[in-house]
Amino acid sequence: MTTAVTASDRRRLLEIGLIALTGLGKFVFMDWLNWRLPYILTACLFWMGYILYRRRQSPNILSQWGLSTNRFQKTFLELLPLALLSTLAFVFLGEYLETSVLNRNVLPLLLVYPLWGIIQQFLIIGLIAQNLQQLEAVDLSKGWIVLIAALVFAVVHFPYLLLVGGTFVLALLYTWLFLKGRNLVVMGIYHGWLGAFFFYTLLGRDPWNEVFAQWMG
Asked: What is the chain written as a DSSP string?
């Protein structure tokens, strides 16, 4: 028997479709055309506008998405030891493997990358994972939802295989924590900080130069 798709399910599927287009745009505008900054700014502005639009419709939606102060301190302190250990491991391995290009450019990146990290976590966890959990026409277990969200997040970071593996593990942990009620904003902040050090140390890339250099003269 086929379950009818409800109006709420249509909205959830539409959101997942828009995320798919956003992911496709990454391959076109960031990887192919190298328009990294315009793509990131456009994606951030579009999804921030969507968040404000949905908030006007449903005042409690931010709490539902984890975009509030609820459990902020609890989540921050829970993840802090892992974030510190991961950062130290990235720096140590980068020096050992001689892949590190860590420099002062990491400092401004630590300020701006968390915003992009929050948007990414919102798309993958706040929308994809939560929409899959709430779909009325499909009954997926929490394990499948966590796995699907992690796979989607990993695929978006192709073709950098080390980054694919790292984001897959991160998404497994973050999706599981989010579905247990943790704060998404904190996850986005840590995403930005960890991502910055991961790029500079293990990938040997300078994201600040890659994103901003060609647009700053």
From this structure: -PPPPPHHHHHHHHHHHHHHHHHHHIIIIIIIS--HHHHHHHHHHHHHHHHHHHHHH-TTHHHHHT-SSTTHHHHHHHHHHHHHHHHHHHHHHHHHHT-----TTHHHHHHHHHHHHHHHHIIIIIIIIHHHHH-SS----HHHHHHHHHHHHHHHTTT-HHHHHHHHHHHHHHHHHHHTT--HHHHHHHHHHHHHHHHHHTS---HHHHHHGGG--
In this prediction, residue 137 carries a pLDDT of 79
Using CA atoms, how far apart are residues 17 and 8, in angstroms rounded to an integer?
14
The pTM (predicted TM-score) of the whole model is 0.91
Evaluate if residue 28 carries a pLDDT over 90. yes
**Mean pLDDT, all residues of the chain:** 91
Per-residue model confidence (pLDDT) at position 136: 82
> Residue 172 in contact with residue 125, Cβ under 8 Å?
no
In a 10 Å sphere around its CB, with 0-12 CB exposed, 13-18 middle and 19+ buried, how is residue 84 labelled?
A: exposed
